[in-house]
Amino acid sequence: MDEIIRIENLSYAYPDGQPALADINLSINRGESVAFIGPNGAGKSTLLLHLNGIIHSEGKVKVFSESITEKNLKEVRRRIGLVFQNPDDQLFSATVFDDIAFGPLNLGYAEAEVRQAVTSALEKVGMAGFERRSCHHLSLGEKKRIAIATILSMSPEVLVLDEPTSNLDPRGKWRLIELLGKLPVTRIIATHDLGLVVALCNRVVVLDGGCIVADDTTEIIMNNPSLLEAHGLSRPAGLKAALESATQARG
Predict the structure, then answer these.
(1) What are phi and psi of 189, to 5 degrees?
(2) What is the per-residue pLDDT for 250?
(3) Up-side HSE of residue 73: CA atoms within 13 Å toward CB?
(4) Strand 61-63 to strand 211-217: parallel, antiparallel, or no bridges (unpaired)?
(5) Closest to 158 measured CA to CA, from 4, 47, 2, 1
C-alpha cells in the first residue's frame, strides 16, 4: 500500500480549552475514498483542517512521509486540496477565472499555464465557459463546483471535502456525487450524507467526541445500524439497496 497520510497520537483543543480531538491514529493510502462521519461536534472538520496545515500540531501529521512545516506548507496545500463546506469561504474574486487562477498564480505558473489550468479545471467540473461570470451570481450548486475547480487547477493528489452536498437539492446532490466519482484522486470526505458515503467511499471512519470509534469498510459500517444510531446517525430509506448496488459496482 502507498501510504500518503499518517496521523499518530493527535490531540487538539481549541484556544478556549475546548477539546476537539483525542489521540487520533489513522493512515490513508493513495487511491482510497474515505468518509469521516459522526454527529455535529465530533471533530470531523477539525481533523480535516490538520491534513493540509491550516491547523498545525507539531509532528503529529505526516503527508507523503514528511511532517508539515512552514517550509513545505505551500507544496502540501497544492498536493492536498481542501474544499470548505461553504463555497463563499473559498470564492472571493471578481470573476470565476480569477478565483480559479489564484492558486496557480501563487504557485508561479506562467500566464499560458494559468489559462490552461483554469480551462481544464472548469471542464472537469462541467462549468466550461463560466470564466467571466461572477461567483456571487451563481447558484449554490454552481458555486460548489467552482470551489472544487479552484483546487483542481493546482493538480492535487488528494481532495479533501467538508460536507460537499450540504444544502443541495436532490438533483444537485447527485450531480455533484457523479462529478466527484469521476475525479482520479484520493478522496477524504467529512459528511452526514450517508447516500454520498455509499456512492463514493470504500472506507468509513466514525468519529464521536473527538475520538475514532470505528474504522472499517463502508459495507461493514453501513450494515451496523446500532453503531450508526449510537453516534447520532441513521440509515435513510433505500440505503440497503444502494449499498448492495455500490458493492457490486466496486466488484
Answers:
(1) -130, 120
(2) 58
(3) 11
(4) unpaired
(5) 4
pTM (predicted TM-score): 0.91
Amino acid present at 112: A
pLDDT, tens digit, for every residue of 16-38?
888 999 999 999 999 999 999 99
> Do 40 and 20 meet the contact criterion of CB atoms below 8 Å apart?
no
Cα separation values, 31 from 39, 167, 248, Å: 26, 28, 19
Per residue in 25-77, pLDDT tens? 999 999 999 999 999 989 999 999 999 999 987 778 999 999 998 899 999 99
pLDDT at position 237, please?
64
Would you tell me how many other CB atoms lie within 10 Å of the CB of residue 56? 16
Burial of 93 (0-12, 13-18, 19+ CB in 10 A): middle
Regions of the chain with pLDDT less than 70:
1, 236-251
Determine the pLDDT at residue 234. 79
Whole-number Å distance between alpha carbons of 136 and 88: 8
Cβ atoms of 122 and 148 within 8 Å: the answer is no
CA distance 119 to 129: 8
Q: What is the pLDDT of residue 162?
A: 96
Q: How far is CA 74 from CA 79, 150, 245, in A?
A: 9, 15, 40
Q: Say which DSSP state 60 is in.
A: T
- Burial pattern 121-152, b for ≥16 Cβ within 10 A else e, equals bbebbebeebbeeebeebeebbbbbbbbbbbb
Rounded CA gap, 48 and 54, in Å?
9
